[in-house]
Known about the structure:
Number of helices: 12
Low-confidence stretches: none
Bound molecules: NADP nicotinamide-adenine-dinucleotide phosphate
Shape: globular
Distance between the termini: 41 Å
Amino acid sequence: MAEKGRVCVTGAGGYVASWLVKLLLSRGYRVHGTVREPGDVKNAHLKKLDNALENLQLFKADLLDCSSLLSAIAGCDGVFHVASPVPSGTVQNPEVEFIEPAVTGTLNVLKACSEIKVKRVVVVSSGAAVALNPNWPENQVMDETCWSDKEYCKEIKNYYCLSKTVAESEACEYAKRSGLNLVTVCPTLVLGPMLQSALNASSQILVRLLKDGSDSVNNRAWKIVDVRDVAEALLMVYEKPEAEGRYICTTYMAKSKDLVDKLSSLYPNYNYPKNFTEVDEGSKGFKLSSEKLQRLGWRYRPIEEILIDSVKSYQESGYLD
Ligand SMILES: NC(=O)c1ccc[n+]([C@@H]2O[C@H](COP(=O)([O-])OP(=O)(O)OC[C@H]3O[C@@H](n4cnc5c(N)ncnc54)[C@H](OP(=O)(O)O)[C@@H]3O)[C@@H](O)[C@H]2O)c1
């Protein structure tokens, strides 16, 4: 296989990053993966990936430690900045838990990229940095020109959305000022099989629908995308010279009840929620479009495949026992 060069992936052991590392290794890249605890069993899956023995090198790095980032990025042509805290429960101190690692962490990565003169940086942002905008015209599909409203995120205390919005907008401003070649990708809710052993926050949402058995859940609208398709999108915007700016990465919109209907027709024996409460989701009910990414050549798999492969993965990891 032709050698493709050397790239760094931050937060390599996480859900999305693990699929990206796997894809990069399969396409002939040498990968520097940053992890906070190289010896931790939660990162053990990385070393088992095909070609990992020869082409994957793990670096201990924290987003708030610039010298650790410099060591990991040294010698790389490109960087995929994936690491960022993703909430799975209540937040005690949003500034420390989310805003600082997301915003300062992203700027630290970008500054290291400038210093090392990497050719392109791909930052994983989020649909959370796009969709929380109460001023966006009703019924107009959201595209890359739409940004979440920072004041609104603060008002509704959605610190994850705030962290991703501030991190992405500051990254774009930094790139404009410094001339760094930056592309950002904004995936919505990422589902699909896990490579890592720990259940990540977005997979927890589907696991809960399968086994929680609650009397009632909010009938929220989810914008879903498969983790393998996200990895393909990240590599595509890295490799295609014409890629520029922001890319929304999303596929299907489904309400909680639609998901349960689909899942229960495939797997009738799980403990699904019994009732659904309609909720007014404001701007979160809006539609997002991935047209720009599709124009670049991105394709995605059917929702049934996402759900079937997710359930198989949770079964194999024992999360549905
Ligand atoms: N999953 C989704 O639905 C979704 C949707 C849109 C965007 N995203 C974005 O995709 C990226 C990956 O998310 P994920 O779902 O894969 O979550 P994940 O599995 O929880 O991965 C998050 C990664 O970030 C690392 N990290 C957090 N704080 C760090 C710090 N201070 N220094 C170094 N590393 C740090 C974590 O490392 P440790 O293992 O050491 O904690 C972990 O590897 C994030 O940027 C997230 O915002 C995810």
